[in-house]
Amino acid sequence: MALDEHLPDGPSRRALLRTAGAGIAAGSSLLLAGCGGAAKPRRKLVAGSDPVAVRDEDIAVLNEVLDLENEAIASYEAGIQLLSGHGRAAAAQFLGQELAHATKLESTIRAAGAKPHPPRSSYPLGNPSDEAAVLRQLSTTEASLVNAYLLAIPKLTPGWLRAVAAGILANESQHVSVLRMLRGRPPVPGAFVTAAE
After folding, report:
1. Exposed, middle or buried by CB within 10 Å (0-12, 13-18, 19+), for 132?
2. For position 25, what pLDDT does the model report?
3. How many structural domains comprise the chain?
4. Which of 2, 56, 139, 158 can bridge 52 by disulfide, Cβ–Cβ 3.0-4.6 Å?
């Protein structure tokens, strides 16, 4: 049932809709003005045509997820050799996507005038000895990434940064689904994206 079915015809209907639209616009402006906190911006970045402030806190959050992306890259590079068939093909594709995520995070951090964390020289990846163990490890790594992005998104101030993180989160969730399927589990276990199995 449409809302306009209950509104009278003619000028009063138009006036009601105009007033409601103005009220929504004013409320949205107040809501957006209240977002973001009082932290000092690092530098203005341009997303589209609007300058958007990036805070030191945003950089710290981006570097945290970058650290996990670099660990995921190391996991895929180390584990891909023990995979075969569909598992190897998926891992190769996911490695490329993790590299793209890391590159995007690094370039965003640099554009804000900050320094991205470099990859560590080594990561505690354990010693998976067969395909099943590698798939388990990659699943754990991807679940950690999903959790990290779920926690990061509400901490980021500029909306466009949240959009970047949400896009990466969606891709990490796809990785989790495919890895679950490769392990013989239901690819989509629930209606909500979480880091839990």
Report:
1. middle
2. 44
3. 2
4. 158
